[in-house]
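Figure 2 data, in text form.
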Amino acid sequence: MPPERRPSPPDVVLAVRTRGEEVQFAVRLQPRAKADAIDGLLGDALKVRVSAPPVDGAANAALIALIAEKLGVARSAVRIAAGDRARHKVVAIRGASPDAIRRALTR
């Protein structure tokens, strides 16, 4: 039986910041999960699970694909700005507003 998904408290919001033409936010990535999914917030970071292993950038590629799909942007508009080899990352998006990112990723 899968663990119960606990919603984030209503006063917790995904922290995003604008840097030039990009919008950045923190991600806590869990590789080698059963399925790719966004699990809400962990503090002010987005908690994301991907089934890919953390080998040769596979988990990062899966993260980029999942975020791009959820936001409806091209994969080339999504990049890992910091934490390429860590579970805690900063993801940068081009072509999306902070409000659109919050709505799409924290439903």
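Caption note: The mean pLDDT is 89.
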